[in-house]
Amino acid sequence: HFNPSPDPSIFFISGKSLNAGLTPYVDFADTKGILLIFLYSLAAHISSTSFLGVYIVQCLSLFSTLFFAKIAADFYLSNKGSHIATLMLCIFLFDSYRYQRGGGAEEFLWPFMTALLYFLARYFSTYNIRDSKILHAYLGAFIGCSFMIKFSITIPIVILGLFLFFIEQQKNGTRLAFKSVIITLITFLLTTAPLLCYLHLIGGLQGFF
Predict the structure, then answer these.
(1) Which residues lie closer than 8 Å to 67 by C-beta, 6 or more apart?
(2) Rounded Cα–Cα distance for residues 170 and 105 (Å)
(3) Contact at 8 Å (CB) between 36 and 29?
(4) pTM of the entire structure?
(5) Considering only CA atoms, which of 64, 63, 99, 67 is closest in space to residue 82?
(6) Nearest Cα to 19, choosing from 2, 37, 3?
(7) Ramachandran angles phi, psi of 203, nearest 5°
(8) pLDDT at residue 67, rounded to an integer
(9) What local confidence, expressed as pLDDT, does residue 177 receive?
(10) What is the DSSP code string of the chain?
(11) Gyration radius of the chain over CA positions
């Protein structure tokens, strides 16, 4: 069974290939990251002959996206207003090219994006140092996950991180701003290092890069 969009079909084949014991970036390759292959490997474990597993993973992704969107909206809207805003987000998501085709890398990054909105809203509501640390810890993990799913999405997130650095510098001083950068780098490495070590051990690291 194939998806009408070629990319998800390729991802699905990659996931099935991993489950069959083939080595990623050696026996098969794609321009996307290993974390996306793991997601499709999980989906292929649920069903290797249809996109049922992919659909289940998509549903979990959408639920997480809307959950974080709702709690982010709660910072600025009433409970009723945040529910309406979250439902309106569905209109924009379902009308987008990525959701219409289904199973794209961007779709699985939406939960990370709305979670980032939540942590941003939480920080901007207080400018609290503790919330800043949580925000930057999450930012580093998000950069790492996006790097391991779709490399090109990493660039705008890093640019956002630079913008946050200047805000942090103005609000809490240069010293704390650089501490935030260190926190971001640590969580980025904690996210990516295990996956890179895995690729090194199976001989796929060179092909990955």
Answers:
(1) 114
(2) 35
(3) no
(4) 0.85
(5) 67
(6) 37
(7) 85, 20
(8) 93
(9) 87
(10) ---SSHHHHHHHHHHHHHHTTPPBTTTB--SS-HHHHHHHHHHHHH-SSSSHHHHHHHHHHHHHHHHHHHHHHTTTS-HHHHHHHHHHHHHHHHHSHHHHH---HHHHHHHHHHHHHHHHHHHHTT--HHHHHHHHHHHHHHHHHHHTT-HHHHHHHHHHHHHHHHHHHHHH-HHHHHHHHHHHHHHHHHHHHHHHHHHHHHT-HHHH-
(11) 19
Angstrom distances, CA of residue 68 to CA of 151, 174, 190: 23, 30, 23
8 A C-beta contact, residue 41 and residue 15: yes
pLDDT of 5 strictly over 70: no
Q: In this predicted model, what pLDDT tens digit does every residue of 143-181 receive, in sequence order?
A: 999 999 988 889 999 998 898 888 888 887 888 889 999
Go through the chain and tell me how many residues it has. 209
pLDDT per residue as tens digits for the range 35-54: 998 999 999 999 888 888 88
* Distance spanning both ends of the chain, measured CA to CA: 30
Residue whose entry in the numeric block shows the structure tokens 């289940």:
56
pLDDT digits (tens, 9 = 90+) for 102-131: 678 888 889 999 999 999 999 888 888 888
Token pair of 1 as six digits: 């069974």
